[in-house]
């Protein structure tokens, strides 16, 4: 970030925090006949321990840790400002920078959106252009201010865990990318679709680095099970992994994946369950478990993973300090290479969320990883405070 932009950003932070704070748990809105501006954001401060802190440089035969890590770490997980702008009801935009690194910022969202049917009760069709989330991996599509566990992926500092969330992101199947997408549905939103064309890069890449692209499609049916909402979705993607030939020319190798996702309940009170399954190619491994040499024509390994997360939010009537308590539990299985034996990973996360006001909360998780073979299990204890405005 250049000096001028850093100075402006630093000066704007207190003002935006003040505006957000005056609105309590909601965003601050400024509205006129032709323009509506909404300011909001989140601050997430996280502390994490790791069993890899007792790993030594000399190594440990039964440990899969790859480096020494601090016994406990306290860090800024997210520091985001969100600006939503709506012009004349059919043109809107979002800009959401992330200042979590403090000395510079990254852009999380930066897109414009055209609502092709602004008079409909629910969006019939809209076009989104810019940097935003690809419609793949239902866990990724939920806001980080609402997810049931602290992290979407199962993370142990000092250990490379091929979890549901990491396989989805490292294979560039999900998360944010630059692209164009059309989505919409029937008037009752019983059915909703998404179809997008993206660069197929990692979340913070600003431009394409190969001749290929990524096509992502998603379809979702929104039903009810008793008094609870039930969403059933399937998604598929065809993407390219870019590389450079020996002569310097750009090339790419195609791979695909699909997802099945279900969600029962919502982020209100009561039970809430999310479950997903992803199968595709692990672009970081060959069937033999090596790093692919795409110039030599190596194939990608096949991978599959599933994850289920459940919670039960209990409202606390008349409690001065807490608004609600939500115990949560996650179970996850990942096989990063279907051609190899002994690399399956199981993960478990018991935890609890303590809500003060709307999405303002403290979350506590204990991530536990069980590895195949004689390798010892590893774990990480996490606590995160979230201020949402």
Give structural notes.
- The structure is a single chain.
- The protein has 389 residues and is mainly β.
- 8% of the residues lie in helices and 51% in strands.
- It contains 3 helices and 17 strands.
- The protein has helices at residues 3-22, 138-141, 164-170; strands at 28-31, 35-49, 72-87, 91-98, 106-115, 125-133, 176-185, 191-198, 214-225, 228-244, 250-264, 270-282, 301-315, 324-335, 345-357, 360-371, 378-388.
- It has a 16-stranded antiparallel barrel with strand order 2-3-4-5-6-7-8-9-10-11-12-13-14-15-16-17.
- A hairpin with a 3-residue loop joins strand 3 (72-87) and strand 4 (91-98).
- The radius of gyration is 22 Å and the shape is globular.
- The two termini are 25 Å apart.
Strand and helix layout:
Blueprint: H1 3-22, E1 28-31, E2 35-49, E3 72-87, E4 91-98, E5 106-115, E6 125-133, H2 138-141, H3 164-170, E7 176-185, E8 191-198, E9 214-225, E10 228-244, E11 250-264, E12 270-282, E13 301-315, E14 324-335, E15 345-357, E16 360-371, E17 378-388
The tally of helices reads: 3
Secondary structural class = mainly beta
Estimate what percentage of residues fall within beta strands.
over 45%
Mean pLDDT: 88
Task: Report how far the terminal alpha carbons are from each other.
Answer: 25 Å
Largest β sheet strand count, sense and barrel closure? 16 strands, antiparallel, barrel
Strand runs, count = 17
Widest sheet: strand ordering: 2-3-4-5-6-7-8-9-10-11-12-13-14-15-16-17
Q: Whole-number radius of gyration? A: 22 Å
Shape: globular
Relative helix content: under 10%
- pLDDT < 50 runs, ≥5 residues: 1-24
Following the backbone from N to C, one meets helices and strands in this order, namely: HEEEEEEHHEEEEEEEEEEE
């Amino acid at each position: 970030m250049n000096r001028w932009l850093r100075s402006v950003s630093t000066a704007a932070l207190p003002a935006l925090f003040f505006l957000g704070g005056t609105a309590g748990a909601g965003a601050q809105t400024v509205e006129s006949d032709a323009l509506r501006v909404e300011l909001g954001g989140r601050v997430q401060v996280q502390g994490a321990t790791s069993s890899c802190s007792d790993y030594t440089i000399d190594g440990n035969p039964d440990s899969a840790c790859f480096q020494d890590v601090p016994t406990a770490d306290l860090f800024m997980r997210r520091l985001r400002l969100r600006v939503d702008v709506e012009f004349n009801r059919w043109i809107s935009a979002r800009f959401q920078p992330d200042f979590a690194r403090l000395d510079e910022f990254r852009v999380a969202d930066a897109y414009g959106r055209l609502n092709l049917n602004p008079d409909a009760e629910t969006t019939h069709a809209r076009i989104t252009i810019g940097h935003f989330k690809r419609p793949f991996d239902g866990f990724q599509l939920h806001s980080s201010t609402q997810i049931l566990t602290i992290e979407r992926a199962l993370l142990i500092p000092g250990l490379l865990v091929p979890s549901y969330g990491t396989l989805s992101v490292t294979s560039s199947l999900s998360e944010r990318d630059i692209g164009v997408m059309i989505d919409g549905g029937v008037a009752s939103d019983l059915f909703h679709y998404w179809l997008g064309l993206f660069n197929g890069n990692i979340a913070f890449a600003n431009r394409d680095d190969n001749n290929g692209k990524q096509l992502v499609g998603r379809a979702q049916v929104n039903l009810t099970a008793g008094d609870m909402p039930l969403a059933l979705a399937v998604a598929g993607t065809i993407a390219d992994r870019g590389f450079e030939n020996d002569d310097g020319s750009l090339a790419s190798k195609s791979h695909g994946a699909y997802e099945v996702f279900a969600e029962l309940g919502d982020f209100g009170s009561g039970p809430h369950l999310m479950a997903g399954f992803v199968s595709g190619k692990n672009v970081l491994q060959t069937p033999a478990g090596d790093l692919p040499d795409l110039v030599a024509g190596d194939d990608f390994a096949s991978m599959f993973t599933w994850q289920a997360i459940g919670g039960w939010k209990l409202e606390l009537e008349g409690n001065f300090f807490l608004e609600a308590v939500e115990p949560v539990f996650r179970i996850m299985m990942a096989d990063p290479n279907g051609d190899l034996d002994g690399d399956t990973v199981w993960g478990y996360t018991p935890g609890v969320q303590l809500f003060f006001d709307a999405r303002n909360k403290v979350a506590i998780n204990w991530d536990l990883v069980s590895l195949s073979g004689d390798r010892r299990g590893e774990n990480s204890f996490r606590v995160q405070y979230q201020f949402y405005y």
